[in-house]
Amino acid sequence: MYLINKEENTISKVQERTFTQLGFKERKHLQEWIEKNPECLEKDLLIIQKEFNGFNDTNERLDLLALDKDGNLVIIENKLDDSGRDTVWQSLKYSSYCSTLKKDQIKDIYQEYLSKNNKDENAEEKLVEFFDNIDYKEIILNQGQSQRIILVAREFRKEVTSTALWLMNYKLKIKCVKVTPYQLDEQLFLDIEQIIPVKESEDYIISMLDKESENSESQEQLKDRHKIRIEFWKEILKRLNEKTQLFQNISPSKDNWLAAGSSVSGISYELVISSYYCRADVYIGRPSKEENKLIFDDLYLRKNEIEAKFGQALEWERLEDKKAARVKYEIKDVDVFNKDNWEKMMRFMIDAMVRMENSFRDEMKMIANKLKNK
Predict the structure, then answer these.
(1) Distance of alpha carbon 196 from alpha carbon 175, whole angstroms
(2) Torsion 296-301-304-310 (CA) sign
(3) Residue 273 near residue 344 (C-beta atoms within 8 A)
(4) Which fold has domain 216-372?
(5) Which letter, b or e, does each residue of 204-226 get, where b requires 16 or more Cβ atoms within 10 Å of its Cβ?
(6) Averaged pLDDT for residues 89-98
(7) What is the pLDDT of residues 281-325, one digit of tens each?
(8) What pairs with residue 50 in β-bridges?
(9) Where are the domains of the chain?
(10) Which whole-number Å values give the CA distances from 260 to 196, 243, 297, 337, 341, in the listed order?
(11) Of 97, 141, 181, 213, which is the most exposed, with the fewest CB atoms less than 10 Å away?
């Protein structure tokens, strides 16, 4: 690593250091850095446990346990300056232990992690959010032999890298990530480089390996769910279109939501169904987070007038940690996959959407004019 001196048009070498020289420890420092910033290893990783030791008949504990967007468990094993010779074997043991974990066990492990870190959050809701708001029952976790391994160290021994490459030929998903600290005066830097598989060729290598077949039973269940939702949407759209023109051009979908545009781009009226609730909402999802929050705040100032038109209290969700915001009307304890619930759900959602459109009509005009005059 070199420092560029723009004025003198020169470069000077930044001193490479070891973690030991800098006084850093694996558990106290490297592990904490990765836990707080898992994206340093890979995009879209969700840490669900630290120093996990919930294995039967052993006191061994893995450093970090995560989930990726495909529902695979990711075993993260950290070393400092030297990978050691047994790190692959160690991570394989942890993978074998984790291979037996069921979906609800994984949820409980994550809930324990959240509680241990004083986070008053619900693991199931956080998992639904991580998997892009699909129904929890449709989330498939730790399917078959899908576990992945990420090894982290400053230097990897040859026996580790050669074993990792050999295991990849047998469809084991393993990565080696090299972490190198640097020092410039009082400033410290950390360079993170994926060395196996080489980042630039990773997609090609993965495409050359046959992907493990997905569990056919789960896929059939997913197809059945899609069919049920399409059937539900067909029926409710037929009834809804007799009451309002809002969804006239909307087709049934396999998804758990339908959206119709308002008079303001990026703000939509939505119907959402699941196995434990259904709702109607106004979804504020323009490109700018700041603009979405300002629109929500303007609407919230008129909360009393809007709810008076609607006839009941609404739930106002500013969604501080997200780009969007919404106002919703929801009932729980209904299940779209139980057809005995359909009549109740449809009556509720049609009535709610008709009233919501009427209640927000003037507000949409106000927002449109305000945006036009910006």
Answers:
(1) 5
(2) negative
(3) no
(4) Yope Regulator; Chain: A, (3.30.1460)
(5) eeeeeeeeeeeeeeeeeebeebe
(6) 93
(7) 999 999 999 999 999 999 999 999 999 999 999 999 999 989 999
(8) 64
(9) 2-208, 216-372
(10) 46, 14, 22, 23, 24
(11) 213
Round to whole Å and give the CA distance between 318 and 328: 11
Q: Alpha helix (H) ranges present in the chain?
A: 19-22, 31-36, 87-98, 103-116, 123-130, 158-168, 202-208, 216-240, 289-301, 303-310, 342-372
pLDDT tens profile 362-373: 999 999 998 887
Helices 158-168 and 87-98 pack at an angle, to 10 degrees, of 40
CB atoms within 10 A of CB 126: 17
Residues 32, 23: Cα–Cα separation, whole Å: 15
- Tens of pLDDT, residue by residue over 274-285, are 999 999 999 999
342-372 and 303-310 helices cross at what angle (nearest 10)? 140
CA distance 304 to 134: 32
The fraction of the chain above a pLDDT of 90, given in percent, is 81
Phi/psi at 4 (5° precision): -90, 130
User: For the stretch 232-248, what's the b/e string if a residue is b when 16 or more beta carbons lie within 10 angstroms of its beta carbon?
Assistant: bbeebbeebeeebebbe
d(CA 69, CA 44): 6
Helix (H) or strand (E) holding 78: strand 73-78
Q: Read off the tokens for 38.
A: 């898992």
What pLDDT digit, counting tens, does each position of 180-232 carry? Answer: 999 998 899 999 999 998 876 656 555 555 454 345 556 677 788 999 999 99
Query: What's the burial of 173, exposed, middle or buried (CB within 10 Å: 0-12/13-18/19+)?
Result: buried
CATH class of the domain defined by 2-208: alpha beta
- Phi-psi map region of 94: left, alpha, beta (phi>0 left; psi -120 to 50 alpha): alpha
> In the numeric block, which tokens belong to residue 132?
């892009």
The secondary structure of 160-193 as a DSSP string is HHHHHHHHHTTT-EEEEEEEEEEEETTEEEEEEE
